[in-house]
Amino acid sequence: NDRPETLEFQAEARQLLQLMVHSIYSNKDVFLRELISNASDALDKLRLAALRDKDLAVDTDDLHVTIEVDREARTLTVRDNGIGMSRDEVVSVIGTIAKSGTAELLRQLREAQEAGASQELIGQFGVGFYAAFMVADRVELTTRKAGESGGTRWESTGEGTYTLGALDEAPQGTAVTLHLKPADTEDNLHDYTAEWTIREIVKRYSDFIAHPIRMAVERPGADGAEATTETVTLNSMKALWARPRGEVEPAEYHEFYKHVGHDWADPLETIHMRGEGTFEYEALLFIPSHAPIDLFSPQGRRGVQLYVKRVFIMDDCDALMPNYLRFVKGVVDAHDLSLNISREILQQDRQIRAVRRRLVKKVLATVKDLKTDQPERYRTFWTEFGAAVKEGLVDDADNRDTLLEIVSVASTNDPAELTDLAGYVGRMRDGQADIYYVTGENRTTLENSPHLEAFRAKGYEVLLLTDPVDEVWVERVGSYQGRTLRSIAKGEVDLDTEEERGEAEAQRERQRTEYADLLGWLTGVLSDSVKEVRLSARLTTSPACVVGDAHDLTPTLEKLYRAMGH
Ligand code: ADP
Ligand code: MG
User: Fold this and answer.
1) Where are the annotated segments for B (predicted)?
2) Predicted TM-score (pTM) of this structure
3) Can you tell me the distance from the alpha carbon of 127 to that of 345, in angstroms, rounded to the nearest whole number?
4) Sign of CA dihedral 53, 43, 134, 157
5) What b/e sequence results for 201-239 when a residue is b if at least 16 CB atoms lie within 10 Å of its CB, and e otherwise?
6) Which atom of ligand 1 is nearest to 34's Cα?
7) Which residue among 33, 372, 420, 463 is least enclosed by CB atoms within 10 Å?
8) pLDDT per residue over 358-393, tens digit each?
């Protein structure tokens, strides 16, 4: 065997580990949930790999997780016979954190920890494997990837470096051994070598895991006979989504969400539904309580897993949820699909498309109900996911009407509150024909925009749109309840009533003659920068402003298109 090498964690991984090693997170028991969750994922991946690749010589008949304890040595091992990791995979997934936005989150996390409030943020990060370092001062991992002959041994104390060595022999799959810190109630550490502690944690957090989680336990012999060991299965393995809704406790839903959503926080909403008839399926979907840090990154994870009759088929099933609902997490179990179905075929499948239509309607109806019945929760939802949901106004014409009821935007009506479009229409002034909006980088800039002056003077409300996607959807949607959505920064604005218009037109005519020379001169001088200089009805106190043609791209839109690679 080669001598083990010592390698350094990537900077961000090192920082996160520091936070774990010195964690004040009060619920340290969840480390076991994370390790079991990873083991279960590895088992799913192996079954799938075996299904896809007939040449992969692996045995998938008894996929399971084993928990082993050694009370004397104070170690706890979580072992699986799943897909395993190659040496390179160990380095890249255990030694680094690839998620975008990590640096920023870590900065916030450190600040929060200094302020003694890191819990919630740790929850948002979903620290996964590193959670082991909350309860262990040393962690060993041995693994062998399915189909490879040699294995890899990884070890670390979580303090900056890890060692990596090759193993000639190792069972296929992964074993993670924790050298436990001393049990200490002040540090909220339970005795993780005690059978009942483990039983309880598994029952609470991992009962629904679809593979058996086994442990050898000692049974005292009856009537002075010798003690025996027996292997017991700790979880019920019941697929939560297959159980009747009324029989599942909210806490069970929440733990299941944390497993499928790779999240530490409870979900905002749970949607459990069943489709009967020609195409049977069960769906258990969740709206998270916070956006993932990669919501707007093209490599970001999408949320829905596909199962066929309890067998995991794929993660990130994009055929089941449109892109604008990519944050929805959960499971869809379709009964009548082939286990070998590919992504490409799924996209074409008529029944899958029908399921997707129903899921989308249900998610949108759930959000709409939140908005009516639980405004606080709706506000959380909208703050986290609104910018993504608005993409639906562009992409999903079928649900546009529902989406238009869900949308909230900032407006000049109230500096602190958002409004929906119905609210805006309800406040429209007599004689106001259109819905006015202005787009830009942020609310403050927009509120100080000279474009707003004439509208303020008239008492007309203007929507202040600051997300890049806003420009696209207002164009695409065009109108709401028969009223045109009109940008106040484009083309001619006409705010006057019939009479005022006659009067104003007469006045403008006089002014045009009066200023004709000046305008001609300005147009000449500025000919490189602007098409035309004209008198404006839109300003009350500013001397001049730049406007786009009615059909021009606005600056933000230009930026958006460039970012999208157009
Ligand atoms: P996540 O599960 O959210 O991806 P984790 O930190 O829990 O994040 O795990 C990081 C990665 O390490 C996993 O995505 C997986 O690739 C790998 N991994 C962890 N545990 C195992 C395991 N038991 N078997 C195979 N791969 C594993
Ligand atoms: Mg994990």
Assistant:
1) 344-559
2) 0.77
3) 34
4) negative
5) bbeebbbbbbbbbbbebeeeeeeeeeeeeeeeebbeeeb
6) 7
7) 372
8) 999 999 999 999 999 999 999 999 999 999 999 999
